[in-house]
Amino acid sequence: MSSTLLFTRPTALLVFCACATAVTWMPARAAALAPLRGGSALPRRAPSRPDELIPYIAANRIVMPSSAEVRAMRAAHAVLIPSFSRQTKLACSVCHYAFPQLTPFGRLFKLNGYTLTGLVPIAGGDTSHPTLKLAPIPPAAAMMIASLTNTGAAVPGTQNNTALLPDQLSVFLGGEVTPRVGAFVQLTYSGQDGSIGIDNTEFRFANHTTLGAKDLLYGVTLHNNPTMQDVWNTTPAWGFPFASSGVAPSAIASPIIDGALGQQVLGLGAYGLWNRTVYGEFTAYRSAPQGGPAPLDSTATGVGRNMMPYWRLALQHQFGATYGMAGMYGMVANLYPTGVVGAVDRFTDVGLDAQLEHPMGAGVLIARSTWLHERQNLNALASADPRGAANRTDALDVFRVNASYMPNTRLTLSLGYFSTTGTADSVLYSPASVVGSRTSSPATNGAIGELDFNAWENTRLGAQYTVYGRFNGASTSYDGSGRSASDNNTLFLFAWVAF
């Protein structure tokens, strides 16, 4: 793997969860809560009566929708929009505050393997030992993003105000495969380079048992992007901003867990949620790049030596009407810069994260924070000829804090701060027009503001502005060619629709 690929965060392909993992909390009758005894199990089938639409979300958790919207939803029972929404016969707002931010119901839906259904399946075999339970409709959905990007100053030699239609076009296949196995598969066309390829993909098995007289939800996940299996919006795959420009200049460095391995690995993991409180997961990753040589050989780049372990621990609790989660996660990756033999570079990532959700009138306020530390042992890059790094040991620290306020289902206002700091390295972070560092430092910080208007639950118009205080180590002439951090300030206008 080249030093650019190793240390520059690639443009994330944006995922709309096909309304699978989505935003409204609704009242529940006390009698409906009793059978679950406070557990985390989802019913095998969606409730058949409107007053049991979400039979285990307590009344003090109600945030949206308004009483008029509740009556309308109960009358129609569902708004039939993409894939998982069609499968469950529940509106996208049941699982998302505003996509892709998950509600408690949405988190459970994902952890239970995307298998909750409101459809009568096509069955085979006898009733006691069925051999087939197939959804009567194709589990398909699509998403498209159109965008306009304006930077404070045009990149030298280019035209500003870049328009893309589509910026991204994705086709999803997602839903119940068997009563305990579900899938989420995304195929994406990128308007920036005209390529089509596999995007975030996951297959998940889930079941329930008891441990210490408490419910234990356990499962197995097979996926291709570290942290895409997570159910909180604090880890890299689903973190804020949920949409961003792929053509604006990006910072020179980010941790390896922050997108560099997306669609380049195969991960097999086991997870559990005990008593709706303690979540744990362990996943082992193996390099599985798309479009490369198979088996991997001397022409491959960024290949992991053996397995790359990932771990996750989170505690969640309901404090009256306020929900809180605090967690930690990490990953270790030993990567060959090129080929599959010789010295490796070792990346050890450890992160702390937290999320709070609090109702405010008819709306909700969601706050999120993440801190990531990466220790880099760059034996391969530092000993290469030519050298890919000046130091044998480097470090990166990333801090992000952001909040989203949704006064209703139509509007979302989000604000965030981000900061990256790390060891100066004259080779790894060398001067270069726009993308380099005059000071050999990865230090970058700034703020993001975004206003979204959801014309429908599956249609969003957004305006996002990113302002930089420092970029690649400096505020002025950061690249050694006279470009200032403020020249990379970015206005990103987008339309995001799923159908």
What's the layout of helices and strands?
Blueprint: H1 3-7, H2 30-33, H3 67-76, H4 84-88, E1 96-98, E2 101-102, H5 104-111, E3 122-125, E4 130-134, E5 140-151, E6 162-178, E7 181-190, E8 195-211, E9 214-223, E10 265-274, E11 278-287, E12 301-304, E13 308-319, E14 322-338, E15 345-360, E16 363-377, H6 379-383, E17 393-406, E18 411-422, E19 444-456, E20 459-470, E21 490-498
Antiparallel strand pairs: 1-2, 3-4, 5-6, 5-21, 6-7, 7-8, 8-9, 9-10, 10-11, 11-13, 12-14, 13-14, 14-15, 15-16, 16-17, 17-18, 18-19, 19-20, 20-21
Q: Helix/strand/pairing class, anyone?
A: mainly beta
Number of strands: 21
What do we call the CATH topology?
A: Porin
How are the strands of the biggest sheet laid out side by side?
A: 5-6-7-8-9-10-11-13-14-15-16-17-18-19-20-21
Number of helices: 6
Distance between the termini: 37 Å
* CATH hierarchy class name: Mainly Beta
CATH architecture: Beta Barrel
Described by strand count, sense and barrel closure, the largest sheet is:
16 strands, antiparallel, barrel
Helix content: under 10%
Radius of gyration: 23 Å
Count of spatially separate domains: 1
Unreliable residue runs: 1-81
For this structure, what is the CATH homologous superfamily? Answer: Porin
From N to C, what is the helix and strand string? HHHHEEHEEEEEEEEEEEEEEHEEEEE
Shape: globular
Strand content: 35-45%
* Mean pLDDT metric: 82
